[in-house]
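INFO  loader      accepted 1 record
INFO  loader      residues=199
INFO  predictor   begin
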Amino acid sequence: MWYWRHDYFKTLRDIAADASEKTEWAGYAKFGLEYERGLRPQAFATLERFICAFESAPFSERRSFVSWLMKTTEGTSGKLMAIPHPLRLRIVEPTLLVWTAADPKCSEPHCWLGGYEHLKLALELDSSNQIARRKLIISLLAVGSHQLPDAYVGDPHQDLVSLAEAEALLQGISNDDERRQWSVAIQEERFIIQQYLGS
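INFO  predictor   done
INFO  writer      dumping tokens
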């Protein structure tokens, strides 16, 4: 039934296997296994029980779980299935926000919260954070030229500033292939915007 999303369900299987190694995360592991088997209503009932119990867990335990979950799912196809909205809303985001206050010099929670301000702060706190750097570059590349030739969404002058910022961030990307690919993407977007402004 769901073979066309094989990678998504592989993510669920893998994280369920990892989570099952910790007794406190058994409910989440069970959710992953049930969801992977196509038992969606049952899986979300299991997830609800896990969330209700885990909301009152000590902060250190919630932080450990959220850190593991975000690292494990980063870059995977099934990330949204592994972190469904109720879990994100009631466990992940509140824990990350408490974490930023409890440990204001830690880059990690800002990296997972995402958004320009959090990602900028993540890099200020730890310039070696490759995940935050990649996320920030990707967000800066989301310029308004994608609607051309019909229309330009946003401010092309601001987008040129964003592209310049993304270009500066490339110097800290450790992967040569990624750095080259993004450099080409930035040059292409800049050319399109300059052409638009000159028309």
